[in-house]
Amino acid sequence: MNHAVLRRIIFLGIAVLSSSVAAQVKPPVLTIIDLAKAGPDYSVQGEYVGKMAGEAHGFQVVALGKGEFDAVLCPGGLPGEGWAGTPNPRQKLHAKRENDAGDGTVKFSGNGWVATVGGGVITIRDIKDQEIGRLSKVERKSPTLGLAPPAGATVLFDGSSLQRFKPGARKSEDGLLMEGCTSLDEFGDCTVHIEFRLPFQPESRGQGRGNSGLYLAGRYEVQMLDSFGLKGENNECGGIYTVAKPRMNLCLPPLQWQTYDVDFKAPRFDEKGTKTADAELTVRHNGHVIHENVKVPKPTASAIIGTEGVKGPLHLQNHGNPVRYRNVWVLPKTTP
Length: 336
Hints:
Jelly Rolls, mainly beta, 2 helices
């Protein structure tokens, strides 16, 4: 074999290998944690309230990336503030930004009407082009946001240090607790308060969209996920993972601060170590009760402690998404 042929074979082999490696390299996932860099789609996304045909309605607009959106129209108002749940089914819609119009508006079409979103307002017109509704953008805040720790509480994170967490805990440049940390303190029966902020990942879907979780006693997970505008399942935000779905999906849009206030009752054991009662959780999401005394029969998936016990650490899951936390405290309870 002459040198020219050999060089040609080597060149082709390198080219094929390079092409194969390039095909395996996935493009970076669009992830935004800075509100100032969220872009025009984020300015459309959000919650709107007002009246349509004389009746109160809520509108949740969800950014899907590249100018596409889903939206749900809620009769009576937003979830937790007027919408009564499944007896009044939501209407799901889809739209794409009308860039050709030059004004960046988004239009959703319903049963005989068109809703135009832009400038923080949704204007709804019927087939005769008569205005039948107008809704304004709102930013709801949890009533427990900024809740101060009561006397006797253990403050795990107030922005000052990571001394209450095991090695490996991290703090962001802007002083927030980062995902993937475990407390040094262990707790049994307790109340937990935590504030969390989900990243804006409009092109991601399902469990890849702002995923983390709050593990009570290192075993029982209350899911954190960007589930804004979704149905509310047991693997979505507010779900006790794979055990119970929330009464209603109270997830706010990403990049807004949200709260969990959780009452945890550890499992009970007799003198021989046999379990006599399951762990129980009551969860308030953004001030609304979404679970009440729900029994959790065993540690949930990906728990850092696989066997049951009366005490364990508070753990915040690292699922590869930049979820942030602040104002984290635990109030131990003395119960029989």
